[in-house]
């Protein structure tokens, strides 16, 4: 008879809540393209569960961008699609367009020469910029709740946010809360990118770090320097195509990826991933190398999909036990894949806490919720609002939670926790 591995989500949420509220751990966030998808807004830009995603995922972004092009451009793209394999998206389309712009010169492919494809690439990027230029809703939302958690605790180390997203949503949330952050740019009138300052750690811990590792709206090249304009119309450095990996040694990308490596190779660091599917080969390779080199770093990957659709993350987690994957229906922890199954709650208070990360009709079987960025941000914000006063939860030999008294100073090492089959 085949044994089934069971992971108790209560066990790991005890650890995570403790780390989130203490302010001692070096914490980083990797916020991927799935994050803004979790915010639903109506036509007026207000939060509405029945509305559309604030910024679409890659598949829907492809439909929106291609649909917004002129008929002549659509005809060329339609001719390219059969050459791009199964389910091509805006990244593969733009990659082919840019490669043709560099390769064919005055020759023509599907009615355009190299210069024509270069112009088409610029138009595609402009359309991408229009789609990802959405502003945060005025109401309290996932981004403002995330920033509220960041600013609500005295920290020994700054929070570092790494994101491949081009939007300005995180910047808006920080500025709305009047919380300081540093993104590698210096100056006031036309802030310029200063690669040397990224490797320094001299700013106070209350200054969060925001690293836009694939560029951003508002960045542009001016006099051989990268400047930040603050304008959502500046789309020169938001090219989501695979050619950016060929040019990664150029600033600012090399400095930003270097910062990601440095964070991951610093002992006792924890990286929390949300909205990141592990499909980005370059980012995933950096994570893989760092996990191999530094066994004292841990990564928690919160996945919106069930385990069956998180194979890229699972493959890496089974090779690197210091990466844990938390999906809707199960997890990979310490390299072992298993289904979620909560134990009996030790207190009435824990039942309320469980509702922040677990959806269930009977209290046990159900779904883990924190793969949704909005749910995860709410969990962060509520970690300080809902406290286990003078008590801590521990797992007994049956894998259920027990109540024991504590002065609150004990800390569970999240990367040392493992489940038994």
Helix content: 25-40%
Structural class of the helices, strands and pairings? alpha/beta
Beta-strand residue fraction: 15-25%
Spatial separation of the terminal alpha carbons: 13 Å
Low-pLDDT runs of 5+ residues are 388-421
Main beta sheet: 10 strands, mixed
Quick recap:
The chain is built from 14 helices and 20 strands. The chain has helices spanning 9-22, 58-68, 71-80, 90-103, 114-131, 142-151, 169-176, 195-198, 243-246, 253-264, 281-293, 311-319, 348-354, 373-385; strands at residues 6-7, 26-31, 40-41, 52-53, 160-163, 181-182, 185-186, 192-193, 208-212, 219-222, 225-228, 269-274, 298-302, 323-326, 330-333, 336-340, 358-359, 367-368, 391-395, 401-405.
Textual characterization of the structure:
By secondary structure, this protein is of the alpha/beta class. The protein contains 14 helices and 20 strands. Helix 11 (281-293) links the parallel strand 12 and strand 13. Helix 2 packs across helix 5.
Properties at a glance:
2 domains, two-stranded antiparallel sheet, 421 residues, alpha/beta, ten-stranded mixed β-sheet
Topology:
Layout (H helix, E strand, L loop, with lengths): L5 E2 L1 H14 L3 E6 L8 E2 L10 E2 L4 H11 L2 H10 L9 H14 L10 H18 L10 H10 L8 E4 L5 H8 L4 E2 L2 E2 L5 E2 L1 H4 L9 E5 L6 E4 L2 E4 L14 H4 L6 H12 L4 E6 L6 H13 L4 E5 L8 H9 L3 E4 L3 E4 L2 E5 L7 H7 L3 E2 L7 E2 L4 H13 L5 E5 L5 E5 L16
Parallel strand pairs: 1-16, 2-5, 2-12, 5-9, 6-9, 12-13, 13-14
Antiparallel strand pairs: 3-4, 7-8, 10-11, 14-15, 15-16, 17-18, 19-20
Helix pairs in contact: 2-5, 4-5, 6-14, 10-11
